[in-house]
Amino acid sequence: MQHASLTFKSLRARAVVLKLERPIVARIATISDWPLILIDFYTEEGIVGRSYLEPYTARAMKYLIPALHDFGEMLKGQAVSPIRLYELARKSLHFVGYQGMSMIAASGLDMAAWDALAKAAGMPLCVLLGGSIGPVKAYNSNGLWLKEPAAVAAEALELREEGGFTGLKLRLGRERPADDLATILAVRKAVGDGMELMVDFNQGLHLGEALQRCHMIDDTGLAWIEEPIVYENFDGFTQLAAELKTPIQIGENFYGPRDLYRALQVKACDYVMPDFMRIGGVTGWLRAAAIAGTAGIPMSSHLYPEVAAHVLRVTETAHWLEWQNWADPILQRPYEIKNSQLHIPDVPGVGLEWNEAAVTANEVVI
Which CATH number applies to 128-343: 3.40.50.261, 2.40.10.120, 3.40.605.10, 3.20.20.120? Predict the structure, then answer.
């Protein structure tokens, strides 16, 4: 099939802040307002690629949106080749550094460029990448924050019914370790033995606490223990992975595929779950997936369920998609979730179209 040739014209980035239905209450932060940067990637041929970023804090948008607009000026007139645009964007910030805000901005550009290319080809992104349309196994990560055990157990039943889920993620890191254990047991009693339960400490512990608490919950039948300590402490993760029976999950803070490679080199984890705004968008994911596949390490996604569904369809060691509906209010047609699977629509690209009325109602000036 002859693919249409595209030429980059301009880029628009808008700031939106949404109210979370279930505010994030983790050991390291409480978040009730959820910021998004909506990216429109315009081409001379009229094709518009779309992506969004979720930078956690509204303040971060003050730096990311100008960086994205700088890319728009710098890349004007370039052929839309996502891998080449990704490299040009990263190298333009070489002296600032490849990680942090630089990688996040380049990732947003990359996801929008891939969407445009797939639209021009008239294919869903997963098909353009050599895969096929189909369902993707997902767990619900919409809530189960640091509330008292009975409330978490009741909410687990609600979350299970949001999409017939067979997997749920709850957060740990309460002041008393016994309360974390009580929460796991309460949720297990509520949802039954057939439910996969993942737990996430959100980097809230130091290594000593992690050793104590992770050993305490090691026999509760968890699917994985996620980020008990700060993300960059690979030595600590190596110790935890060696001592625990429960798999250790890390990766949402890998800034590019080389971070994933280093983690696997030192045996810092059993599973990986890159985040699209940090791993390098679609391009970074594909490179990371090749490393994980070679090592035989199961690979799950973090946030961005729409683009995640497409790339998991072409990921050799695809494991779980993390599902949240946090961006759904600004989407015209959110993806369908049913029987614990996210269903990819049969439309060109990723299938992101903005609900402009909702965008206008929640847009903020940066």
Answer: 3.20.20.120
